[in-house]
Design a protein that fits this description.
The protein is 49% helix and 13% strand. With 343 residues, it is α/β, with parallel strands linked by helices. The chain has 2 domains: 11-104, Winged helix-like DNA-binding domain superfamily/Winged helix DNA-binding domain (Arc Repressor Mutant, subunit A, Orthogonal Bundle), CATH 1.10.10; 159-342, Rossmann fold, CATH 3.40.50.150. The chain has a 7-stranded mixed β-sheet, sandwiched between helices. Strands 1-3-2 form a 3-stranded antiparallel β-sheet. Strand 2 (79-80) and strand 3 (85-87) form a beta hairpin.
C-alpha cells in the first residue's frame, strides 16, 4: 500500500491556516468551559470512560458530549482511546478540581459566559479607551461583583488559585526577612499573605480588602492557625490603607488601574508605611518587540475589564517615580509574574 505525502503548503496557505486557528479560538475556549463546568476531568480521574457513560451520569446529550470531547482531544486536552472512549492526559488532569496545581478555577473564570459577553463589546474599548465591561453591565467590574456573588466567587477562586501558583516561585527568589508587619493590599482570600506568614513565623500580617471579599478570607486564616498573627481590615485603597506596615505587597492589583489611579494607591501606601518601608508588586513585566508574552494578552483583559494595563520596566519606573518611590529591582520568577520592589 503506497502512502501519498500531503502536498506542500505555501506560505500564504500557512498564514491563512494560522488566521483560521486564531479566529476560531472562542470555540476552543467554549470547549474548555464545558469541560470545567461539567467537571469532565474529575469524572475521568479513576479510569477511561465512554461518552455514553459520561452522558448518562451528566444527563446530557451523548453525541454532543462526544463531539466536545473529540475536539478537546484534538487540541491536546483529554485523549481519545477509541470506540468513543476518553481518558485524562496531563493537560486535562490539571482541570481536576481538587488536585495540587489545578487550573480548574482559573479556566472557569477565563472561559465563562461573562467573559464572552464583555469581549463581544471589545470594539467599544478600542473606540473609546473605556472598559467594555461598563457598556456590557452598566457599572465598573468591581462594583458589579458584589451584586453578583456567584460570579464574584468564581473570580475570587481563580485569583486564589493563581496566587497558589505564583507564591512558591516568589518565595524561592525573594527574601522577606526583616519585615515586622506586612500589609497585603487587596489581598483577596489571603493566599499570598498566609503563605509568607507560614514561612516567616516572626512576621505579622494585615489583609486589606473589601468587606465582601474578607468574608471568604477569615475562615482560611483561621483554618491555618494564623488568626493571632494576621488581622483583616476592610476599606477603599483609593482613600487610605492600613498604617504602620514595614512593607506593602500587591499581587496583580496595580495592573487593574490606569496610571492616575495606580499613583493614588501608591501615594496612599507611601503616606501609611513606616520609615524605610518598601512596596512589593507581584506583576507581569511586558516584553519588548514581537516576542510572545502572556502579559500582552492579559493587557487586553485589563483594557476591557477594570480599565488598567500591564506595564514595561520603564513604565513601572515612571509610575513609582510619580508616587515618590525609586524602583530598586525587578526579580523574575518561574511564574508569569515578577517581583517588582520600590523603597
Amino acid at each position: 500500500m503506497s502512502v501519498t505525502n500531503p502536498p506542500e503548503v505555501s506560505p500564504e496557505a500557512a498564514a491563512a491556516q494560522h488566521l483560521m486557528q486564531l479566529s476560531t479560538g472562542y470555540i476552543a475556549s467554549t470547549c474548555v468551559y464545558l469541560a470545567v463546568k461539567l467537571r469532565l476531568a474529575d469524572l475521568l480521574a479513576a479510569a477511561p470512560r465512554s461518552a455514553a457513560d459520561l452522558a448518562r451520569e451528566l444527563s446530557v446529550n451523548e453525541d454532543a458530549l462526544f463531539r466536545v470531547l473529540r475536539t478537546l482531544a484534538s487540541l491536546g486536552v483529554f485523549e481519545e482511546q477509541g470506540a468513543r472512549t476518553f481518558a485524562n492526559n496531563l493537560a486535562s488532569s490539571m482541570l481536576r478540581s481538587e488536585t495540587p496545581g489545578s487550573m480548574h478555577a482559573m479556566a472557569l473564570w477565563l472561559t465563562d459566559p461573562f467573559h464572552f459577553q464583555v469581549y463581544a463589546n471589545a470594539l467599544h474599548s478600542v473606540e473609546t479607551g473605556d472598559p467594555a465591561v461598563e457598556k456590557t453591565v452598566g457599572v465598573p467590574v468591581f462594583e458589579w461583583f458584589p451584586k453578583n456573588p456567584e460570579e464574584s466567587e468564581i473570580f475570587n477562586n481563580a485569583m486564589t488559585m493563581f496566587s497558589g501558583m505564583v507564591i512558591p516561585a516568589v518565595l524561592e527568589v525573594y527574601d522577606f526577612s526583616g519585615i515586622g508587619t506586612l500589609v497585603d493590599v487587596a489581598g483577596g482570600h489571603g493566599r499570598v499573605l498566609t503563605s509568607i506568614l507560614q514561612k516567616y513565623p516572626s512576621m505579622r500580617g494585615v489583609l486589606f480588602d473589601l468587606e465582601h471579599v474578607l468574608v471568604g478570607a477569615r475562615p482560611v486564616i483561621e483554618s491555618l492557625g494564623l488568626s493571632d498573627r494576621c488581622d483583616t481590615v476592610s476599606g477603599d485603597f483609593f482613600e487610605a490603607v492600613p498604617e504602620g506596615g514595614d512593607a506593602y505587597i500587591m499581587k496583580h492589583i496595580i495592573h487593574d488601574w490606569d496610571d492616575e489611579r495606580a499613583t493614588t494607591i501608591l501615594k496612599n501606601i507611601r503616606a501609611a508605611m513606616n520609615r524605610g518601608g518598601r512596596v512589593i508588586l507581584l506583576d507581569s513585566v511586558v516584553s519588548p518587540g514581537n516576542q510572545p508574552d502572556f502579559a500582552k494578552m492579559i493587557d487586553l483583559e485589563m483594557l476591557l475589564m477594570p480599565g488598567g494595563r500591564e506595564r514595561t520596566e520603564q513604565e513601572f519606573r515612571e509610575l513609582f517615580a510619580r508616587a515618590g518611590f525609586p524602583l530598586t529591582r525587578i526579580i523574575p520568577t518561574k511564574s508569569p509574574l515578577s517581583v517588582i520592589e520600590a523603597r
